[in-house]
Amino acid sequence: MSDNTIAKTILYQIGGNKFIVMTGSKNFLYGDNYLLMTLSENKSGANRLKITLDPSDTYTMQFLKYRPFETEIVKEFSDVYCDQLQDIFEEVTGLYTTLSEGEKMKYHMTLFSVVPWENSETE
Question: Under a CB-based contact definition with an 8 Å cutoff, are residues 45 and 74 in contact?
Fold first, then answer.
């Protein structure tokens, strides 16, 4: 059995729980130096993503189209630094990994403008 420390680190660097919620990624599997996940439908057509830690302390990202008895590499990126993981993911899939500051503010304002405040003590 392998240690999941590397996989946890990869997930943290790509966005952690926010990444999972925003992208709908699921079925996370790990090995000694990689994290593999199932992707929701996206513009690339890839349904799996494998992120592997390389000996150079960079990552290789493989966007895969998995079908029984056949796996096709849709896109592959090597020598990826941890701060590039989210940008590459968003570029390839079209799925956002987090809300931008502007979107967060718009969402926050929408939440509070939809439900009017009523004072229950006044008639």
Answer: yes
pTM, two decimal places: 0.79
In three-state secondary structure terms, 105 is: helix
**How many C-beta neighbours within 10 Å does residue 17 have?**
9
Burial of 117 (0-12, 13-18, 19+ CB in 10 A): exposed
Domain boundaries, the chain: 5-114
| Cα 90 to Cα 34, 80, 118, distances in angstroms | 20, 14, 41
d(CA 57, CA 54): 5
Query: 104-113: long-range contacts (C-beta < 8 A, 24 or more apart)?
Result: none
Mean of the per-residue pLDDT values of the chain:
86
What is the number of H-type helices and E-type strands within the chain?
4, 5
| Per-residue pLDDT tens over the stretch 64-112 | 999 999 999 999 999 999 999 999 999 999 999 887 665 555 554 454 4
